DNA sequence: CCTACCGATCGGTAGG
DNA sequence: CCTACCGATCGGTAGG
């Protein structure tokens, strides 16, 4: 009844959350396949064996991390604001939320975007990710159908490039310095919807 | 004096080019760290040890592949067309050429974009890549300074998002079907410079 | 290019 | 019986 984790009381040990957070940090630095359990142990300040007290194995660590990212994205899909109103407005909302989730769950989404399907865990994550992609792709097509988006570009290609720009955030965004998530989303939407060319150009 | 590679005469064996091409294909499928020399051997139809007849090691295979990508990008930087005229026109030319090189050297650039600096080879490639990034970043700033690009967005952020959209091509482009490199560049430039919003919207 | 291997390290598990 | 690990080692595989 005092503390959930007695070890933490003494300033030692790890809870499931800290193990996951540190592991994902190392995975993103070295790559999942490039990270050994020994490296993970070093980063956690415990022995390699002690990791297995906290988590069934390396792959489950990956699975939990990928769920963090995917659950965030699917919470957005389930939101009523993604389902009512003009398609262009829903698309804008989804893009804004995507940037927010990317920034909020940066290490988890970063890991997700690097998954290539090397295991059952990775394949399952890829399938969930593709499902989210299809959702956004459908939104772009609806926006094109209602005439909100220019007709001279292929909606499927537009979706790809949109994701490219949004997902690239994981490649360079540093929470400590630079733009906030809102500033980031604002600039992104301005460029995407209104273009880069100077209005007086 | 008959054939450069005697093994090839009998319809067997590999030349340095085929070894590199097949290896890069496997690296892109499974990830460099996720690929063992045994897997590579299987893909090449030879034993693991036989690979060392063709190439000094796994890392040199990576180094050669990364050079393919980087040499293409730097040939562009050295071109006079990247150095004269209005910044906006030079930027457009560089973006168009970037798409062309990405498509022409797709597997090599794909590999380059996934490098995280896990070895000296990877760190050297990352540094060359950053040099190219700085070149484009400078172009964007020049275009902003001459007033060709809207003043209400940060040029550094614009550069990041530009690269995000362009580089995402490696994530989904299939040479066999879909748009040509020229169509791709055209759509990309339309969206980036003129925006997604319908001109009548 | 293959057979026969090496030093070391891999992810994961034993008893205490 | 529990939590939170440790030192040592398992069967296999890594790059060479």
TrEMBL record, chains A, B:
Alphabetized InterPro entries for the sequence: Homeodomain-like_sf (IPR009057), HTH-type_TetR-like_transc_reg (IPR050109), HTH_TetR (IPR001647), KstR2_TetR_C (IPR041490), Tet_transcr_reg_TetR-rel_C_sf (IPR036271)
Ranges for domain HTH tetR-type: 13-73
One Pfam family linked to the record: TetR_C_24
Keywords in alphabetical order: DNA-binding, Transcription, Transcription regulation
Origin superkingdom: Bacteria
SUPFAM superfamilies the record matches: Homeodomain-like, Tetracyclin repressor-like, C-terminal domain
DNA-binding stretch(es), residue numbering of this chain: 36-55
PANTHER family for this protein: HTH-TYPE TRANSCRIPTIONAL REGULATOR BETI, HTH-TYPE TRANSCRIPTIONAL REGULATOR RUTR
Protein known as: TetR/AcrR family transcriptional regulator
Lineage: Bacteria, Bacillati, Actinomycetota, Actinomycetes, Streptosporangiales
């Amino acid at each position: 009844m005092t503390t959930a984790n007695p070890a933490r009381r003494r300033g030692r040990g790890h809870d499931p959350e800290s193990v996951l957070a540190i592991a994902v940090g190392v995975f993103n630095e070295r790559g999942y396949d490039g990270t050994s359990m020994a490296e993970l142990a070093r980063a956690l300040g415990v022995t390699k064996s002690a990791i297995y007290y906290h988590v069934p194995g390396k792959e489950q660590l990956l699975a939990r991390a990928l769920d963090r990212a995917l659950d965030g994205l699917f919470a957005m899909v389930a939101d009523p604001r993604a389902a009512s109103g003009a398609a262009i407005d829903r698309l804008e909302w989804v893009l804004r939320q995507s940037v927010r989730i990317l920034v909020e769950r940066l290490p988890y989404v970063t890991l997700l975007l690097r998954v290539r399907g090397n295991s059952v865990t990775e394949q399952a994550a890829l399938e969930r990710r593709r499902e989210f992609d299809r959702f956004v792709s459908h939104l772009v097509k609806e926006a094109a159908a209602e005439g909100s988006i220019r007709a001279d570009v292929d909606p499927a290609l537009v979706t790809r490039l949109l994701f490219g720009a949004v997902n690239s955030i994981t490649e360079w965004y540093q929470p400590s310095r630079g733009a906030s998530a809102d500033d980031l989303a604002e600039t992104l939407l301005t460029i995407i919807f209104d273009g880069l060319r100077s209005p007086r150009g």
